[in-house]
Design a protein that fits this description.
The complex is a heterodimer of chains A (about 110) and B (about 110). With about 110 residues, chain A is mostly beta strands. Chain A is built from no helices and eleven strands. In chain A, the strands form two sheets. In chain A, strands 2, 4, 5, 9, 10 and 11 form a six-stranded mixed sheet that branches. A five-stranded antiparallel sheet of chain A has the order 1-3-8-7-6, with no helix packed on it. The N and C termini of chain A lie far apart (about 40 Å). Chain B is mainly β and about 110 residues long. In chain B, a hairpin with a 3-residue loop joins strand 4 and strand 5. Classes of the chains: A mainly beta (about 110), B mainly beta (about 110). At the A-B interface, strand 5 and strand 10 of A face strand 4, strand 5 and strand 10 of B.
Chain lengths: ~110, ~110
Amino acid sequence: GQNIDQPTEMTATEGAIVQINCTYQTSGFNGLFWYQQHAGEAPTFLSYNVLDGLEEKGRFSSFLSRSKGYSYLLLKELQMKDSASYLCAVRDGRDDKIIFGKGTRLHILP
Amino acid sequence: DAEITQSPRHKITETGRQVTLACHQTWNHNNMFWYRQDLGHGLRLIHYSYGVQDTNKGEVSDGYSVSRSNTEDLPLTLESAASSQTSVYFCASSPQSQGDQFFGPGTRLTVL
């Protein structure tokens, strides 16, 4: 089965950098996703990692270590609009299902 | 533009009634998914389909059913609604075996 852990809540200051960690245990792995979800809205895709290393996309970067079952999402130059929940999700390599963690609620302070 | 839609966006029903939530996508994606999202649980997979006539149970499938008669639609049916099924329901689709999931806007269901 799958088990995905991420912090429940985090707080950071506008303009700063924040790192949201995600650890997973899986019997089959075929990629890790990060999604952003604003309150009352649908999740939207941020990043996808299938190989080890860092993927950078503007202010957001995502890192994966498959041997450690570990990923992080790095948000730079934080803006108030980054206040949202960030969902870590793993694709099961056996049946292509995507299993989500419970999400990290990020609060940005001015 | 291709999109994924859900209807209704809000629904209030009574315990014991049958309810069907619609999901329609115009991307021609083979894979479609239904999730429910509750505080403290995150997104949990209810049912999923990898193509026409294919349906599979997710981790919280009891009390729900789906059917896939064409590529575009995956309706979710609650056979006999229960208060425990009060939740926000998201439909999603993805290309076969590749890519991320695109989510619909969600349906907020309240069972009284």
